[in-house]
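Input.
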Amino acid sequence: MAVTPVLLPVAAVSLSPPADLLLVDASPEAAAYTAFLRGSYRVATTSSIDVARQYLQRHLPSMVVTELDVQGADGVDICREAKALSVPPTVLVTTTQAERVPDALVAGCDGVLLKPFAPNLLFGRIGRLLRARSEMLRTRSRHETLKGTHLVDRSELLLTGTNRAWPNTYCPYCNHGGVTSFEFCSHRRSWYACLACRKVWIAKRLE
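Output.
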């Protein structure tokens, strides 16, 4: 059954029902993304960072999909604020500017999609990230139960997405040890970012 998307005008934020996904995107393609996703998810959409902030204060979506450049504002701020919530949603950032990705990675985003992309690729990435989130929440629940009976140590569980850290790979710009792959650009090559110098580059895929 198709699910009607939730539109978020500023005056009606407090009245909007909770959604599985919060889509923050001012691009012309946003309507097409929403139409493609609404058959499977409840989708709240806005082109305003301020409205997105208000929504996050009142509701807790499972996932936030945010463009990094939203009408002159910075989607990294939404990523950072979402990840500071008591139960942080999964955050997928989209952008045409690969050089901006390191800031989003530092802010805690779980995945990156470089524009342009087809709606079915967005759908697939969202599904993959939400499955990872569900597994993480189940693992965390088991972990907390075991902690209560003193059967496991106190190590923290990490929320992981589609980004991947490579601690033994060195940045070609600053030689910092440890880089992050965040997107594939072909079957053999990936995008990488250094969180020390904030550079990005394309290189052979690491396995």
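The first helix runs from residue 30 to 37.
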